Amino acid sequence: MSEIRLVRRYNAFYQGWCLAFGEHHVSFQEERNINWLFGEERIGLAIASQLRKRIYRELLGQLEKPPVVVLGDSCVRINNLLYRLNDEAEEQHMRELKRFALTEKNLHMYLCSHFAYPPRTRIITFSRKRPLPIIYKEMLPLNLIIE
Fold first, then answer.
1. pLDDT beneath 70: ranges in the chain
2. Cα-Cα-Cα-Cα dihedral sign, residues 10, 16, 21, 25
3. Which pTM was predicted?
């Protein structure tokens, strides 16, 4: 049985602006397409450059129709884009993201950055706290389906 959550989504008023992700522990491997960051009250996904544009466009593009994200056991679907998880570590991180999403009624998604990662790295952040309204404007929410 699937659970459906509404996730409030935000985009920066100015391109390139974003909050710092803050303190976290990370599951990082250079060859991975997705690196997972775990902080207090938030989980982040640092996307490799070859996927970044496609995923950002699906999640944050100015779409008239809100995106649909499906978190499966071994894959993620964002609208028509399918990403298969590569190993047991990614599958474990997906289980953590699912638990996180199911434990809170209000979820927010926006981009962050962190000085420890290469320039232009943006972290897709799922947070229990709303971002600063002086930096971010709210968009249509996304539908998050948790299988």
1. 62-63
2. positive
3. 0.90
